[in-house]
Design goal:
Elements: E1 5-7, E2 10-13, E3 16-20, E4 23-27, E5 40-45, E6 53-58, E7 62-65, E8 86-98, E9 105-110, E10 124-125, E11 138-140, E12 155-164, E13 170-172, E14 180-181, E15 190-191, E16 205-206, E17 215-224, E18 230-239, E19 251-252, E20 268-274, E21 284-292
Parallel strand pairs: 10-11
Antiparallel strand pairs: 1-2, 2-5, 3-4, 4-7, 5-6, 8-9, 8-12, 9-11, 12-13, 12-14, 15-17, 16-19, 17-18, 18-21, 20-21
Length: 293
């Protein structure tokens, strides 16, 4: 079998992907078109008979056009803030999602890895339905009746990367050896986007009713595991010319919002130094690790 991958009883076989001229395509593992004579196979838990599995045959490619062509994915925010470009590369994960009748598979993408059940219909976007605006949203490569694919078992089959313009349009990045089916970006570090999630422009911090200090050097990286664990590391140093103001807590943005309140999103490990603003020295250094999943 060309590229069979097993995940706790589920698996997929004979799937690959390609990018050409702004079109991202899910095809067979050797770069050929899927067909009745050259199908892909996906096995998922049965919805009709719990404890059993259903095998699906995928007999046609699925694809979407990005910002390099007549974009089909524009206006889907995936949790980012509208009209603010995301120039730092963002990982996306590919899912195989069955319909309610267990007769067909639709490929969808999401920013969140490790999902085992597709979201509610209102959180599933498509080329004709730009509603994939939250972090947990899925987006279908083809137009579908979303109500037939919501809250169903799904299988993460791979990953790729995109950036977003200030027009809220997405561009798939050149596929390399960390992208594709059976690949989950676990060996990469990604840069956090400044000015997103409510942060002051060109910073990673929220004003929280005060004024965010500006640093001359800002570094913020994160890594994502396929189980949803996220490790973030940041370093802020040097006087950037704007002092922090008001007696409020410093709030730092994180790459993902935890999906339940029991998950730690503010645990810190490391060391830091913050100067006393009363003496006119506003240079500060922070080196911490925040975990979220």
């Amino acid at each position: 079998m060309a590229n069979r991958r097993f995940f706790q009883g589920t698996y997929f076989d004979n799937l690959g992907c390609a990018l050409s001229g702004g079109t991202f395509t899910i095809q067979d593992a050797l770069g050929r078109a899927l067909s009745t004579d050259n199908p892909a196979y996906i096995v998922l838990p049965s919805q009709a008979t719990p404890g059993q599995f259903t095998e699906y045959r995928v007999t046609a490619n699925q694809a979407f056009i990005d910002d390099a062509g007549s974009s089909e994915i524009i206006d889907n925010l995936f949790g980012f803030v509208t009209s603010i470009a995301v120039t730092e590369i963002v990982p996306f994960y590919i899912y195989a999602v069955p319909n309610d009748a267990e007769t067909s598979i639709q490929f969808m993408i999401s920013r969140v890895p490790g999902v085992e059940t597709s979201p509610a219909a209102a959180s599933i976007g498509a080329p004709d339905d730009a509603v994939a605006d939250t972090q947990q949203s899925f987006w279908s490569l083809d137009n579908i009746d979303e109500t037939l694919f919501d809250a169903n078992p799904c299988l993460m089959i791979g990953s790729f990367r995109m950036v977003m313009s200030s027009s809220d349009d997405w561009t798939v990045q050149t596929i390399d050896d960390q992208d594709g089916t059976g690949k989950y970006q676990e060996e990469r570090s990604f840069g956090m986007q400044a000015g997103q999630f409510g942060a002051t422009t060109a910073t990673f911090m929220l004003p929280n009713g005060g004024t965010v200090p500006i640093f001359s050097t800002q570094n913020y990286l994160y890594r994502v595991q396929k189980n949803g664990y996220v490790n973030s590391q940041f370093s802020l140093s040097g006087d950037g010319g704007t002092d922090g103001a008001d007696a409020v807590s410093t709030l730092l943005t994180i790459p993902f919002i935890p999906d339940n309140s029991s998950v730690s999103a503010n645990q810190t490990i490391g060391h830091g130094r913050n100067s006393d603003p009363t003496n006119g020295d506003t240079t500060a250094l922070f080196q911490n690790t925040t975990d979220s999943n």
